[in-house]
């Protein structure tokens, strides 16, 4: 039931994003702008990130990290594949709706419980699906500046991201009795936004190619409260420990190639 409620909430936000795009398109003066279909592929790297307790002061269930502790690292890199639709509000202003899939993110980090510091690797796989309504300004149409038919632009947008993390695995190999701790996974829908800048090149009357730098804040990645499993491989001992929820912020920088066709 909890997963169903989350899914319904996510789709409500996606529909809201789509409604905002449709409303912006309707604002086009004269209604003579062109619609474009977009395809995109790119590669992103995450910025630094840390998993912490959602509430480190709760008594039940037990916080995983506790106040003042965390697992610090990043979500690595991932390809991005996506599609969308754009509408030219004027010769220099375009609005678009883009849906992007980020399938290869993986958190790699270290927790900081042990003193003196020792290896405490933390690992978990993440996937994100984001829908963003954006606007971009074509500076060549405003200023007349072009360089070998390359046209600079910049813009940004907002929307919703659905972030899913598999179980997080923590490993403590230097303890007298080494053990792993495996947490529940989690799914969260959160506010997202991006900032973008790039260059475009008209390939044909209807075809356009864009190369874009993009900074994206995809909201939070959360693990659910639930049963964590502690396993000691040397003694084959397993223990279930109820723990609280954890969270980390997911931000990325990407280079994206977009191909669009006007209709």
Could you write a compact summary of the structure shown?
With 263 residues, this protein is mostly beta strands. The protein has helices at residues 2-26, 139-143, and strands at residues 35-46, 48-53, 71-74, 77-90, 93-111, 121-138, 150-165, 169-172, 179-182, 186-202, 207-223, 226-232, 237-243, 246-262.
**Mean pLDDT, as a whole number?**
89
Structural class by sheet pairing and helices = mainly beta
Main sheet? Answer: 14 strands, antiparallel
What is the C-alpha radius of gyration, as a whole number of Å?
22 Å
Cα(first) to Cα(last) distance is: 43 Å
Total count of helical runs of at least 4 residues = 2
Oligomer status: single chain
Q: Bin the strand percentage.
A: over 45%
SSE order: HEEEEEEHEEEEEEEE
Poorly predicted runs are: 1-5
Q: Tally the beta strands.
A: 14
What share of residues is helical? Answer: 10-25%
The coarse silhouette is elongated
Description:
The protein contains 2 helices and 14 strands, in the order αββββββαββββββββ. The longest helix is centred in the first third of the chain and has 25 residues, at 2-26. Residues 1-5 have low confidence and may be disordered. The protein is mainly beta and 263 residues long.
Please render the helix and strand layout as text:
Blueprint: H1 2-26, E1 35-46, E2 48-53, E3 71-74, E4 77-90, E5 93-111, E6 121-138, H2 139-143, E7 150-165, E8 169-172, E9 179-182, E10 186-202, E11 207-223, E12 226-232, E13 237-243, E14 246-262
